Amino acid sequence: MRGWTKETIDRFEIGYAPDVPDAAVRLLESRSFPLVLMEKAGLLVKKEDGRYVDRFRNRIMFPIHDHRGETVGFSGRLLGDGQPKYMNSPETPIFRKGTLLYFFHEARVSIRKRQEALLVEGFADVISAVQAGVDYVVATMGTSLTEEQARILRRHAETVTICYDGDSAGTEAAWRAAEQLSAFGCRVKVALLPDGLDPDEYIRTCGADRFAEEIAAARPLMAFKMDRLRRGKNLQEEGDRLRYIEEALREISKLSSPVEKDYYMRQLADEFSLSLSALYEQLSRSKPEQPKPQVNDGGKPVRPALTKKLLPAFQNAERLLLAHMMRSRDVAFIVQEQVGGRFNIEEHRALAAYIYAFYEEGHEADPSALMSRLPGELRTLASELSLLLVADDVSDRELADCIRHVLNHPKWLMLKEKEQEKTEAERRKDFLTAARIAKEMIEMKKMLSSS
Length: 451
Description:
Elements: H1 6-11, E1 15-17, H2 23-30, H3 35-40, E2 44-46, E3 52-54, E4 59-65, E5 71-78, E6 86-88, H4 104-114, E7 116-120, H5 123-131, E8 137-139, H6 147-156, E9 159-162, H7 168-183, E10 187-190, H8 199-206, H9 208-216, E11 219-220, H10 221-230, H11 238-252, H12 258-272, H13 276-285, H14 313-327, H15 329-338, H16 346-360, H17 367-372, H18 376-386, H19 396-427, H20 431-450
Parallel strand pairs: 7-8, 7-9, 9-10
Antiparallel strand pairs: 1-4, 2-3, 4-5, 5-6, 10-11
Helix pairs in contact: 5-8, 8-9, 10-11, 14-15, 14-16, 14-19, 15-16, 19-20
């Protein structure tokens, strides 16, 4: 089956639904499962004459797990001709497709450790990728990425690499998913596979090593967008060239990083021999329109609902460490030994220094006493952290996980710089340098994933 080994088939619990109308009905009845309940679970269908029949017939079956690892639904791929090619369990109280990511229950640890997720579309893409050694992969199960799925990814990873089907539909879907993820604060890259292949097809055709190289060479979102905007345009023709520049500026205007914005502005200026000042003037006109303020029936402005800001994973890790340190002298000494002053945020470094000093003076854990010694700006932070809902006893694993996020963050920043160097080398068509940097990036990622 698609070159999957028996070990892989067993790991993903892949099975088969026979081409008979009541195989599941008879099995469930023999094990005393109520058929009414099995219909509600999406395994059976009730006919007009009151008989129950199997929902899935003559299909390769893929169990779908929730994020705790419990089986909540199935997807069946038809053997032979016919439609639909894939059939999923219906929405049930325990199976809501838009809130789940396929394989997330197993990939979560690797995703958190790497601070990166690989996002694909289908079951087969995930299974082939895992067999190829990529264990931080999840899938949207063939539907558009939802807000809830994007939120889940952001809570566990700083970077999401999208690798959808290489055809035009897959590219459009990748663009939409990237916009969704960016809105939640993810750093997004896109890996476009050649010849319109999907990840499963590419791995079977070109092998695991080539697939790993394609993922390592994934492009930053803005570079992907600029390549996409070029399609269908003849940049030697003035009208197409101006349209491309305007569309590119519209996307550049959405960038939050001034450095990244300046990088792509200079790239446009160099490519088309334009002045930066002219481009920046045009950019000011290309900024996304601000939504008009809403008013109520009385004509008064409606105050927008406050939304909770999603913080980067390393920042959450630092906040959790500080919260536990305020509550535990033992935790503070462990963090002092392993992290010391290497917190990434200056305010966090300062608070950590006060906590270390507080315990070194012989005090027991007492957040109120600690806060009374802090200057005003740090007292506000400490007060906020003291209200965080954290367990009284932090596990060794959770503590190590937080420390790893804090210490690895500067290395991820170095990796991002390498990525920009590679993009610049590709733009100059210095492919030898780009390949060397790509190899360095692979080694850096290996070191990070093993740390």
